[in-house]
Protein backbone atom coordinates (compact mmCIF):
# COMPACT_ATOMS: atom_id res chain seq x y z
CA UNK A 1 0.00 0.00 0.00
CA UNK A 2 1.38 3.45 -0.78
CA UNK A 3 0.64 6.71 0.81
CA UNK A 4 -0.09 9.15 -1.92
CA UNK A 5 1.05 12.65 -1.26
CA UNK A 6 -1.18 15.36 0.10
CA UNK A 7 -4.10 16.94 -1.56
CA UNK A 8 -2.96 18.86 -4.55
CA UNK A 9 -4.36 21.90 -6.21
CA UNK A 10 -3.47 21.40 -9.85
CA UNK A 11 -3.83 23.40 -13.01
CA UNK A 12 -4.63 20.18 -14.81
CA UNK A 13 -7.93 18.47 -14.54
CA UNK A 14 -7.98 16.61 -11.23
CA UNK A 15 -8.25 13.19 -12.82
CA UNK A 16 -5.14 13.87 -14.92
CA UNK A 17 -3.25 14.89 -11.83
CA UNK A 18 -4.22 11.71 -9.97
CA UNK A 19 -3.28 9.59 -12.99
CA UNK A 20 0.14 11.35 -13.06
CA UNK A 21 0.72 10.61 -9.38
CA UNK A 22 -0.13 6.93 -9.80
CA UNK A 23 1.89 6.61 -12.98
CA UNK A 24 4.98 8.11 -11.32
CA UNK A 25 4.50 5.90 -8.25
CA UNK A 26 4.58 2.83 -10.50
CA UNK A 27 7.50 4.05 -12.62
CA UNK A 28 9.54 4.87 -9.51
CA UNK A 29 8.79 1.51 -7.92
CA UNK A 30 6.71 2.87 -5.05
CA UNK A 31 3.94 0.68 -6.43
CA UNK A 32 5.17 -2.66 -7.75
CA UNK A 33 3.55 -5.10 -10.20
CA UNK A 34 0.62 -6.88 -8.56
CA UNK A 35 0.10 -4.24 -5.81
CA UNK A 36 -3.49 -3.55 -5.01
CA UNK A 37 -4.63 0.06 -5.08
CA UNK A 38 -6.83 1.62 -2.40
CA UNK A 39 -10.50 1.58 -3.26
CA UNK A 40 -11.88 4.37 -5.40
CA UNK A 41 -13.77 5.66 -2.37
CA UNK A 42 -10.53 5.81 -0.31
CA UNK A 43 -8.64 7.53 -3.10
CA UNK A 44 -11.44 10.05 -3.48
CA UNK A 45 -11.23 10.88 0.23
CA UNK A 46 -7.46 11.10 0.20
CA UNK A 47 -7.46 13.46 -2.77
CA UNK A 48 -10.51 15.43 -1.95
CA UNK A 49 -12.20 14.60 -5.22
CA UNK A 50 -15.33 12.78 -6.14
CA UNK A 51 -15.42 9.08 -6.97
CA UNK A 52 -16.31 9.76 -10.56
CA UNK A 53 -13.07 11.71 -11.05
CA UNK A 54 -11.06 8.90 -9.41
CA UNK A 55 -12.70 6.30 -11.64
CA UNK A 56 -11.82 8.42 -14.66
CA UNK A 57 -8.15 8.42 -13.68
CA UNK A 58 -8.08 4.68 -12.93
CA UNK A 59 -9.77 3.80 -16.21
CA UNK A 60 -7.27 5.88 -18.13
CA UNK A 61 -4.43 4.01 -16.44
CA UNK A 62 -6.07 0.70 -17.34
CA UNK A 63 -6.33 1.87 -20.96
CA UNK A 64 -2.64 2.81 -20.94
CA UNK A 65 -1.67 -0.59 -19.48
CA UNK A 66 -0.38 0.57 -16.08
CA UNK A 67 -3.27 -1.03 -14.12
CA UNK A 68 -5.52 -4.01 -14.53
CA UNK A 69 -8.97 -4.31 -13.09
CA UNK A 70 -10.70 -7.46 -11.91
CA UNK A 71 -14.24 -7.79 -10.76
CA UNK A 72 -14.51 -7.78 -6.98
CA UNK A 73 -10.75 -7.48 -6.43
CA UNK A 74 -10.41 -3.88 -7.70
CA UNK A 75 -7.43 -2.22 -9.36
CA UNK A 76 -3.92 -3.68 -9.30
CA UNK A 77 -0.62 -2.69 -10.90
CA UNK A 78 -0.20 -4.64 -14.12
CA UNK A 79 2.21 -7.57 -13.60
CA UNK A 80 3.32 -7.37 -17.22
CA UNK A 81 4.99 -4.00 -16.91
CA UNK A 82 8.59 -4.18 -18.18
CA UNK A 83 9.85 -2.26 -15.15
CA UNK A 84 12.55 -3.95 -13.16
CA UNK A 85 13.24 -1.65 -10.29
CA UNK A 86 12.83 1.93 -9.38
CA UNK A 87 16.58 2.50 -9.43
CA UNK A 88 16.96 1.41 -13.01
CA UNK A 89 14.21 3.70 -14.09
CA UNK A 90 15.19 6.86 -12.29
CA UNK A 91 18.95 6.83 -11.80
CA UNK A 92 21.93 5.71 -13.76
CA UNK A 93 23.73 2.85 -12.07
CA UNK A 94 27.42 2.45 -12.88
CA UNK A 95 26.97 -1.09 -14.10
CA UNK A 96 23.98 -0.29 -16.32
CA UNK A 97 25.14 -0.80 -19.89
CA UNK A 98 24.78 2.33 -22.00
CA UNK A 99 23.22 1.74 -25.37
CA UNK A 100 25.41 3.45 -27.96
CA UNK A 101 23.41 5.41 -30.53
CA UNK A 102 24.17 3.81 -33.90
CA UNK A 103 24.63 7.03 -35.88
CA UNK A 104 25.49 6.59 -39.54
CA UNK A 105 28.09 9.29 -39.07
CA UNK A 106 28.55 11.20 -35.84
CA UNK A 107 28.68 14.96 -36.34
CA UNK A 108 30.35 17.36 -33.97
CA UNK A 109 27.59 19.41 -32.39
CA UNK A 110 27.97 23.05 -33.29
CA UNK A 111 27.63 25.71 -30.64
CA UNK A 112 26.45 28.70 -32.60
CA UNK A 113 27.48 32.02 -31.15
CA UNK A 114 24.90 34.77 -30.78
CA UNK A 115 26.93 37.61 -32.16
CA UNK A 116 24.15 40.04 -31.22
CA UNK A 117 24.77 39.31 -27.53
CA UNK A 118 28.09 41.23 -27.59
CA UNK A 119 28.67 44.93 -26.88
CA UNK A 120 30.17 45.24 -30.33
CA UNK A 121 29.53 42.85 -33.19
CA UNK A 122 31.80 42.69 -36.21
CA UNK A 123 30.10 39.54 -37.50
CA UNK A 124 30.87 39.56 -41.20
CA UNK A 125 27.47 38.90 -42.70
CA UNK A 126 25.15 40.30 -40.07
CA UNK A 127 22.67 42.88 -41.35
CA UNK A 128 21.41 45.68 -39.11
CA UNK A 129 18.54 43.90 -37.41
CA UNK A 130 17.33 47.11 -35.75
CA UNK A 131 16.70 48.72 -39.13
CA UNK A 132 14.31 46.07 -40.47
CA UNK A 133 10.77 47.47 -41.02
CA UNK A 134 9.06 44.99 -38.69
CA UNK A 135 5.74 46.82 -38.52
CA UNK A 136 5.53 47.08 -42.27
CA UNK A 137 6.37 43.38 -42.69
CA UNK A 138 3.77 42.42 -40.06
CA UNK A 139 1.04 43.69 -42.39
CA UNK A 140 2.15 41.20 -45.04
CA UNK A 141 2.37 38.37 -42.52
CA UNK A 142 -1.18 39.14 -41.53
CA UNK A 143 -2.31 39.17 -45.14
CA UNK A 144 -0.50 35.86 -45.72
CA UNK A 145 -2.09 34.23 -42.70
CA UNK A 146 -5.65 34.33 -43.94
CA UNK A 147 -8.34 31.89 -45.02
CA UNK A 148 -8.11 33.05 -48.61
CA UNK A 149 -4.70 31.36 -48.75
CA UNK A 150 -5.88 27.92 -47.66
CA UNK A 151 -4.71 26.40 -50.94
CA UNK A 152 -1.09 27.14 -49.91
CA UNK A 153 -1.32 25.63 -46.45
CA UNK A 154 -1.19 21.95 -47.24
CA UNK A 155 1.48 19.73 -48.83
CA UNK A 156 2.11 21.00 -52.35
CA UNK A 157 4.38 23.44 -54.16
CA UNK A 158 7.51 21.68 -52.92
CA UNK A 159 9.71 24.01 -54.93
CA UNK A 160 8.10 27.09 -53.43
CA UNK A 161 5.01 29.22 -53.60
CA UNK A 162 4.50 30.42 -57.18
CA UNK A 163 3.89 34.01 -56.15
CA UNK A 164 7.24 34.19 -54.35
CA UNK A 165 9.08 32.45 -57.17
CA UNK A 166 7.65 34.92 -59.72
CA UNK A 167 8.59 37.89 -57.55
CA UNK A 168 12.14 36.61 -57.04
CA UNK A 169 12.52 35.78 -60.76
CA UNK A 170 11.39 39.28 -61.73
CA UNK A 171 13.72 40.80 -59.15
CA UNK A 172 16.70 38.74 -60.33
CA UNK A 173 16.05 39.79 -63.91
CA UNK A 174 15.77 43.47 -62.97
CA UNK A 175 18.49 43.78 -60.35
CA UNK A 176 21.04 41.11 -61.19
CA UNK A 177 20.57 40.61 -64.93
CA UNK A 178 19.82 36.96 -64.31
CA UNK A 179 17.05 35.13 -66.15
CA UNK A 180 15.98 31.99 -64.27
CA UNK A 181 13.43 29.69 -65.86
CA UNK A 182 12.59 28.23 -62.49
CA UNK A 183 13.64 28.29 -58.84
CA UNK A 184 13.63 26.14 -55.75
CA UNK A 185 12.84 28.01 -52.54
CA UNK A 186 14.86 26.60 -49.63
CA UNK A 187 15.27 27.16 -45.91
CA UNK A 188 18.19 29.47 -46.48
CA UNK A 189 21.14 28.80 -48.73
CA UNK A 190 22.51 26.28 -46.25
CA UNK A 191 19.68 23.93 -47.17
CA UNK A 192 20.41 24.56 -50.84
CA UNK A 193 24.08 23.65 -50.31
CA UNK A 194 23.17 20.45 -48.44
CA UNK A 195 20.71 19.44 -51.15
CA UNK A 196 23.33 19.98 -53.85
CA UNK A 197 26.02 18.15 -51.87
CA UNK A 198 23.76 15.14 -51.33
CA UNK A 199 22.53 15.13 -54.92
CA UNK A 200 26.02 15.11 -56.42
CA UNK A 201 28.43 13.58 -53.94
CA UNK A 202 29.15 9.93 -53.37
CA UNK A 203 31.78 9.20 -50.72
CA UNK A 204 35.19 10.14 -52.10
CA UNK A 205 33.97 12.47 -54.87
CA UNK A 206 35.92 15.69 -55.11
CA UNK A 207 34.74 19.22 -54.36
CA UNK A 208 37.06 22.12 -55.07
CA UNK A 209 36.73 25.14 -52.83
CA UNK A 210 38.71 28.24 -51.98
CA UNK A 211 41.46 27.78 -49.38
CA UNK A 212 39.80 30.53 -47.38
CA UNK A 213 36.09 29.91 -47.41
CA UNK A 214 32.71 29.66 -45.79
CA UNK A 215 32.88 26.80 -43.26
CA UNK A 216 29.16 25.85 -43.35
CA UNK A 217 29.45 25.18 -47.10
CA UNK A 218 32.54 23.07 -46.55
CA UNK A 219 30.74 21.12 -43.81
CA UNK A 220 27.83 20.36 -46.14
CA UNK A 221 30.26 18.83 -48.65
CA UNK A 222 32.39 16.87 -46.20
CA UNK A 223 29.29 15.54 -44.48
CA UNK A 224 28.11 14.17 -47.82
CA UNK A 225 31.44 12.31 -48.03
CA UNK A 226 33.32 14.67 -50.34
CA UNK A 227 37.06 14.90 -50.61
CA UNK A 228 37.90 18.58 -50.40
CA UNK A 229 40.51 20.20 -52.63
CA UNK A 230 41.50 23.64 -51.39
CA UNK A 231 42.53 26.13 -54.07
CA UNK A 232 45.09 28.86 -53.59
CA UNK A 233 43.88 32.46 -53.93
CA UNK A 234 45.40 35.86 -54.52
CA UNK A 235 44.12 39.42 -54.73
CA UNK A 236 41.86 38.57 -57.70
CA UNK A 237 40.33 35.41 -56.28
CA UNK A 238 41.18 31.75 -56.87
CA UNK A 239 44.23 31.09 -59.01
CA UNK A 240 43.26 29.59 -62.35
CA UNK A 241 46.46 27.47 -62.53
CA UNK A 242 45.60 25.96 -59.15
CA UNK A 243 42.15 24.98 -60.45
CA UNK A 244 43.57 23.61 -63.71
CA UNK A 245 46.04 21.42 -61.80
CA UNK A 246 43.39 20.25 -59.39
CA UNK A 247 40.94 19.25 -62.15
CA UNK A 248 43.63 17.55 -64.15
CA UNK A 249 44.82 15.42 -61.24
CA UNK A 250 41.57 14.60 -59.43
CA UNK A 251 38.01 13.52 -60.03
CA UNK A 252 36.19 16.69 -59.06
CA UNK A 253 32.43 17.07 -59.43
CA UNK A 254 31.74 20.47 -57.93
CA UNK A 255 33.45 23.82 -57.56
CA UNK A 256 32.07 26.11 -54.83
CA UNK A 257 32.63 29.84 -55.35
CA UNK A 258 31.56 33.16 -53.84
CA UNK A 259 32.53 35.23 -56.91
CA UNK A 260 31.06 38.66 -56.16
CA UNK A 261 32.38 39.14 -52.63
CA UNK A 262 34.67 36.24 -51.86
CA UNK A 263 33.97 34.90 -48.39
CA UNK A 264 35.88 35.86 -46.25
CA UNK A 265 38.41 37.98 -48.18
CA UNK A 266 35.75 40.20 -49.89
CA UNK A 267 37.62 40.12 -53.25
CA UNK A 268 35.52 40.33 -56.43
CA UNK A 269 36.51 37.58 -58.87
CA UNK A 270 37.71 39.34 -62.01
CA UNK A 271 35.99 38.80 -65.37
CA UNK A 272 39.00 37.12 -67.06
CA UNK A 273 39.25 34.68 -64.16
CA UNK A 274 35.53 33.96 -64.27
CA UNK A 275 35.82 33.13 -67.95
CA UNK A 276 38.89 30.92 -67.49
CA UNK A 277 37.29 29.10 -64.56
CA UNK A 278 34.08 28.55 -66.53
CA UNK A 279 36.01 27.10 -69.48
CA UNK A 280 37.95 24.72 -67.26
CA UNK A 281 34.78 23.51 -65.56
CA UNK A 282 33.10 23.03 -68.93
CA UNK A 283 36.11 21.02 -70.14
CA UNK A 284 36.14 18.72 -67.09
CA UNK A 285 32.36 18.48 -66.61
CA UNK A 286 32.46 20.19 -63.23
CA UNK A 287 29.38 21.99 -61.88
CA UNK A 288 29.93 25.42 -60.34
CA UNK A 289 27.99 26.40 -57.24
CA UNK A 290 27.78 30.17 -57.30
CA UNK A 291 26.91 31.41 -53.81
CA UNK A 292 25.76 35.01 -54.36
CA UNK A 293 24.84 35.82 -50.79
CA UNK A 294 24.97 39.64 -50.63
CA UNK A 295 24.75 40.79 -54.24
CA UNK A 296 22.89 44.05 -53.59
CA UNK A 297 25.49 45.54 -51.34
CA UNK A 298 28.00 46.81 -53.86
CA UNK A 299 29.09 50.41 -53.53
CA UNK A 300 32.02 51.47 -55.67
CA UNK A 301 30.57 50.44 -59.04
CA UNK A 302 27.61 48.37 -60.28
CA UNK A 303 28.02 44.71 -59.27
CA UNK A 304 29.16 42.21 -61.91
CA UNK A 305 26.40 40.00 -63.25
CA UNK A 306 26.37 36.54 -61.70
CA UNK A 307 28.32 33.81 -63.51
CA UNK A 308 24.96 32.08 -63.92
CA UNK A 309 23.88 34.90 -66.27
CA UNK A 310 26.18 33.55 -69.00
CA UNK A 311 26.11 29.80 -68.65
CA UNK A 312 25.70 28.19 -72.09
CA UNK A 313 26.46 24.68 -70.80
CA UNK A 314 24.08 24.90 -67.86
CA UNK A 315 26.81 24.06 -65.34
CA UNK A 316 26.18 26.86 -62.84
CA UNK A 317 23.91 26.23 -59.87
CA UNK A 318 23.00 29.64 -58.54
CA UNK A 319 22.36 29.94 -54.79
CA UNK A 320 21.21 33.02 -52.92
CA UNK A 321 19.49 34.08 -49.73
CA UNK A 322 17.30 36.61 -47.95
CA UNK A 323 19.45 36.29 -44.82
CA UNK A 324 21.33 39.50 -45.56
CA UNK A 325 18.51 41.54 -47.06
CA UNK A 326 16.01 40.52 -44.38
CA UNK A 327 17.43 38.45 -41.52
CA UNK A 328 18.78 34.93 -41.18
CA UNK A 329 15.87 33.86 -38.97
CA UNK A 330 13.46 34.24 -41.90
CA UNK A 331 15.10 31.15 -43.47
CA UNK A 332 14.36 32.11 -47.03
CA UNK A 333 16.87 31.14 -49.66
CA UNK A 334 16.65 29.82 -53.19
CA UNK A 335 18.55 28.17 -55.96
CA UNK A 336 18.30 28.02 -59.69
CA UNK A 337 19.76 25.39 -62.02
CA UNK A 338 19.03 23.86 -65.38
CA UNK A 339 15.86 21.74 -65.51
CA UNK A 340 17.27 18.24 -64.92
CA UNK A 341 19.42 19.40 -62.00
CA UNK A 342 16.57 21.39 -60.49
CA UNK A 343 14.24 18.39 -60.72
CA UNK A 344 16.73 16.28 -58.72
CA UNK A 345 17.08 18.97 -56.08
CA UNK A 346 13.31 19.40 -55.77
CA UNK A 347 12.96 15.65 -55.26
CA UNK A 348 15.54 15.87 -52.45
CA UNK A 349 13.81 18.87 -50.92
CA UNK A 350 10.65 16.79 -50.61
CA UNK A 351 12.58 14.09 -48.75
CA UNK A 352 13.96 16.64 -46.37
CA UNK A 353 10.97 18.73 -45.35
CA UNK A 354 8.29 18.78 -48.08
CA UNK A 355 8.34 22.55 -48.54
CA UNK A 356 9.21 25.89 -46.94
CA UNK A 357 6.92 27.63 -44.48
CA UNK A 358 4.02 28.91 -46.60
CA UNK A 359 3.12 31.94 -44.45
CA UNK A 360 6.63 33.43 -44.64
CA UNK A 361 6.84 32.74 -48.37
CA UNK A 362 3.56 34.52 -49.03
CA UNK A 363 4.42 37.43 -46.75
CA UNK A 364 7.75 37.96 -48.52
CA UNK A 365 6.01 37.71 -51.89
CA UNK A 366 3.40 40.32 -50.93
CA UNK A 367 6.13 42.56 -49.53
CA UNK A 368 8.05 42.30 -52.79
CA UNK A 369 4.91 42.83 -54.86
CA UNK A 370 4.04 45.99 -52.96
CA UNK A 371 7.58 47.39 -53.42
CA UNK A 372 8.52 47.39 -49.70
CA UNK A 373 11.34 44.93 -50.23
CA UNK A 374 13.17 47.09 -52.73
CA UNK A 375 12.55 50.23 -50.66
CA UNK A 376 14.16 48.48 -47.70
CA UNK A 377 17.05 47.35 -49.88
CA UNK A 378 17.69 50.85 -51.16
CA UNK A 379 17.64 52.21 -47.60
CA UNK A 380 20.02 49.55 -46.32
CA UNK A 381 22.40 49.79 -49.28
CA UNK A 382 22.71 53.52 -48.58
CA UNK A 383 23.24 52.93 -44.85
CA UNK A 384 25.83 50.21 -45.44
CA UNK A 385 27.61 52.34 -48.01
CA UNK A 386 28.03 55.00 -45.31
CA UNK A 387 29.34 52.45 -42.82
CA UNK A 388 31.66 50.97 -45.46
CA UNK A 389 33.10 54.45 -46.06
CA UNK A 390 33.40 55.27 -42.35
CA UNK A 391 35.15 52.01 -41.61
CA UNK A 392 37.78 52.79 -44.24
CA UNK A 393 38.33 56.22 -42.65
CA UNK A 394 38.68 54.76 -39.19
CA UNK A 395 40.98 51.96 -40.30
CA UNK A 396 43.15 54.51 -42.09
CA UNK A 397 43.38 56.48 -38.84
CA UNK A 398 44.39 53.33 -36.98
CA UNK A 399 46.91 52.62 -39.70
CA UNK A 400 48.84 55.79 -38.84
CA UNK A 401 49.54 54.29 -35.39
CA UNK A 402 49.60 50.58 -36.11
CA UNK A 403 51.21 48.62 -38.93
CA UNK A 404 48.09 47.10 -40.54
CA UNK A 405 46.98 46.77 -44.13
CA UNK A 406 43.69 46.45 -46.00
CA UNK A 407 42.03 46.98 -49.38
CA UNK A 408 38.72 48.81 -49.55
CA UNK A 409 36.29 46.15 -50.84
CA UNK A 410 34.03 47.05 -53.77
CA UNK A 411 31.05 45.88 -51.75
CA UNK A 412 29.78 43.31 -49.31
CA UNK A 413 29.40 43.68 -45.59
CA UNK A 414 32.95 43.25 -44.29
CA UNK A 415 36.59 44.31 -44.50
CA UNK A 416 39.51 41.89 -44.53
CA UNK A 417 42.32 43.48 -42.55
CA UNK A 418 45.86 42.22 -42.35
CA UNK A 419 47.01 42.81 -38.78
CA UNK A 420 50.50 41.45 -39.58
CA UNK A 421 50.25 39.56 -36.29
CA UNK A 422 49.30 36.05 -35.32
CA UNK A 423 45.55 36.28 -34.71
CA UNK A 424 44.98 32.71 -33.61
CA UNK A 425 43.75 33.82 -30.16
CA UNK A 426 42.33 37.22 -31.02
CA UNK A 427 38.66 36.18 -31.47
CA UNK A 428 38.68 34.55 -28.04
CA UNK A 429 40.37 37.51 -26.35
CA UNK A 430 38.00 39.96 -28.03
CA UNK A 431 34.93 37.97 -27.02
CA UNK A 432 36.08 38.04 -23.40
CA UNK A 433 35.91 41.83 -23.71
CA UNK A 434 32.45 41.77 -25.28
CA UNK A 435 33.58 42.17 -28.90
CA UNK A 436 32.48 39.63 -31.50
CA UNK A 437 34.94 39.18 -34.33
CA UNK A 438 36.18 36.35 -36.55
CA UNK A 439 39.74 35.85 -37.70
CA UNK A 440 41.54 34.03 -40.50
CA UNK A 441 42.05 30.66 -38.69
CA UNK A 442 38.27 30.23 -38.53
CA UNK A 443 38.03 30.27 -42.33
CA UNK A 444 41.27 28.76 -43.53
CA UNK A 445 42.10 25.23 -44.56
CA UNK A 446 45.77 26.17 -44.50
CA UNK A 447 46.81 25.36 -40.96
CA UNK A 448 50.53 25.70 -41.64
CA UNK A 449 50.93 29.41 -42.24
CA UNK A 450 50.78 32.11 -39.65
CA UNK A 451 47.37 33.64 -40.18
CA UNK A 452 47.05 37.36 -39.64
CA UNK A 453 43.75 38.62 -41.08
CA UNK A 454 40.67 39.86 -39.25
CA UNK A 455 37.23 39.93 -40.86
CA UNK A 456 35.39 43.06 -39.82
CA UNK A 457 31.68 43.25 -40.55
CA UNK A 458 30.47 46.85 -40.83
CA UNK A 459 26.76 46.46 -41.60
CA UNK A 460 25.25 45.53 -38.26
CA UNK A 461 26.32 48.55 -36.20
CA UNK A 462 25.83 52.29 -36.39
CA UNK A 463 28.98 54.29 -37.13
CA UNK A 464 29.59 55.52 -33.54
CA UNK A 465 29.33 52.01 -32.18
CA UNK A 466 31.50 50.66 -34.99
CA UNK A 467 34.23 53.16 -34.22
CA UNK A 468 34.17 52.66 -30.47
CA UNK A 469 34.37 48.90 -31.07
CA UNK A 470 37.24 49.26 -33.54
CA UNK A 471 39.26 51.34 -31.06
CA UNK A 472 38.83 48.68 -28.36
CA UNK A 473 39.54 45.84 -30.76
CA UNK A 474 42.70 47.38 -32.17
CA UNK A 475 43.99 48.06 -28.66
CA UNK A 476 43.93 44.26 -28.32
CA UNK A 477 45.56 43.83 -31.74
CA UNK A 478 48.39 46.17 -30.68
CA UNK A 479 49.18 43.80 -27.81
CA UNK A 480 49.76 40.86 -30.18
CA UNK A 481 53.28 39.99 -31.14
CA UNK A 482 54.24 41.16 -34.65
CA UNK A 483 54.98 38.58 -37.30
CA UNK A 484 58.46 38.59 -38.77
CA UNK A 485 58.37 40.09 -42.25
C1 LIG B 1 29.02 32.73 -47.97
C2 LIG B 1 27.66 32.68 -47.39
N1 LIG B 1 26.72 31.99 -48.01
C3 LIG B 1 25.47 31.93 -47.52
C4 LIG B 1 25.12 32.59 -46.36
C5 LIG B 1 23.71 32.59 -45.88
O1 LIG B 1 23.30 31.42 -45.39
P1 LIG B 1 21.76 31.14 -45.10
O2 LIG B 1 20.98 31.55 -46.30
O3 LIG B 1 21.72 29.68 -44.87
O4 LIG B 1 21.39 31.94 -43.90
C6 LIG B 1 26.08 33.28 -45.66
C7 LIG B 1 25.75 33.88 -44.38
O5 LIG B 1 26.58 34.20 -43.56
C8 LIG B 1 27.37 33.34 -46.20
O6 LIG B 1 28.31 34.06 -45.58
Automatic annotation (TrEMBL):
Gene Ontology MF terms in the entry: DNA binding; DNA-binding transcription factor activity; pyridoxal phosphate binding
Pfam families in alphabetical order: Aminotran_1_2 (PF00155), GntR (PF00392)
Superkingdom in the source lineage: Bacteria
Alphabetized UniProt keyword annotations: DNA-binding, Pyridoxal phosphate, Transcription, Transcription regulation
InterPro entries: Aminotransferase_I/II_large (IPR004839), HTH_trans_reg/aminotransferase (IPR051446), PyrdxlP-dep_Trfase (IPR015424), PyrdxlP-dep_Trfase_major (IPR015421), Tscrpt_reg_HTH_GntR (IPR000524), WH-like_DNA-bd_sf (IPR036388), WH_DNA-bd_sf (IPR036390)
HTH gntR-type domain span: 12-80
Family: In the C-terminal section; belongs to the class-I pyridoxal-phosphate-dependent aminotransferase family.
Classification via PANTHER family: HTH-TYPE TRANSCRIPTIONAL REGULATORY PROTEIN GABR (PTHR46577)
Protein name, as recorded: GntR family transcriptional regulator
Organism this protein belongs to: Pseudoalteromonas piscicida
